[in-house]
Amino acid sequence: METFKMIEAMRQKNRFSSGDYTGYKNYLKVEMRGRGQGEDRDLYKLESNLSKFFIFNSTRFLKSNLRILRRNRSEFGVMYSTLMRGMVGGLMEKPIEIGDLLELRKRLLPYKTFVGQIDALLESAPYSFDTSSLKTRYMWNDIAIGFRNDFERDQFLEGKAPQDGGYDADIATFILKVENKKKRLLSLIKSKPTKIVCISKKVEKLLETLDRLKVVLNENLVESAYVEKMINDTEELKAYYLNIAEFKRCLKWDDSIDGFKVPLSFKEVEPQILEVRDDLSYVSRKCLRGALSKYLEKSLQPTKPAIKVPFIPVLFDVARDYISYPAEDKNMEDLFKKLHMFK
To answer: From which domain of life does this come (predicted)?
Structure first.
């Protein structure tokens, strides 16, 4: 199977996968120069003949491959020969059975170009097989994703995006991006819950990716209650961290912080999310001193409009009849207690 892996990589790198068979043939021609006789040269000759078949639509190149493969009884030789005989089709004395092609397809699932060849062969006469029946579907929450085979589905579950185009591939790609962004966000919250600015940026990135996924779904007339819920949850988390960041910057406490409940999508890191609300030790002492100074300065200034005091000696008790000061701010008092300002 290593030989198929090498050919697949060669095809992907040198235009075969994009249908440029002339470009691929020219690459093989260069590679064959200076190579002596042997399996190594035969490999390039097989692929060169296959390219010529696609260019000139002549089965004589496939028959040439079958002659080369007569002396190669390795696993690769037998499997490649089966594919060639299937492509020659009705001209063979004993055509390949559809079951043999399906078995070959199953064994070559990791190699996209070979699976594509076999599918095209199965769909044409004399087989006329419906290859859509070979596809598999996977439910990501409430979104159905189609894959050409179980191998591609398993690759997706391992975090690898499909390489081909189409609606299902686009959906799978954006889903993986969403999962990756969320995974990184949760990891940061778990390990460094007080990194407010960094967390806010990752929340924003997750929200952007979710919005792009929603656009792709809308373009294909697909609705997802799960994606909508996750967008709403992420927006709530974004607002929470923005309020926390504003408080850290200038000690402006938003009442919504106290009433915040961790959205369902982020329940697994609930303790870390609430930690920045309940434990304010991460706020720097310099910031605290500056906020306290501003608060005291404001508290000791008379409220406007100022009341003129008579030009006579005024005792403190009498002065209170003329000068008014701001009332005690209970919220600020509670906040300073949280911050341990008076310890």
So the answer is: Eukaryota
How far apart, in Å, are the Cα atoms of 196 and each of 36, 174, 176, 307?
65, 26, 25, 45
- Total count of residues recorded for the chain: 343
Residue 159 confidence (pLDDT)? 94
- pLDDT (tens digit per residue) in 246-295: 877 766 767 788 889 999 999 999 999 998 887 766 666 555 555 556 65
- 224 with 140: CB under 8 angstroms? no
CA distance 292 to 284: 13
Q: Which residue has the tokens 């037998």?
A: 78
Rounded CA separation 170/17 (Å): 19
pLDDT in tens, 115-126: 999 999 999 888
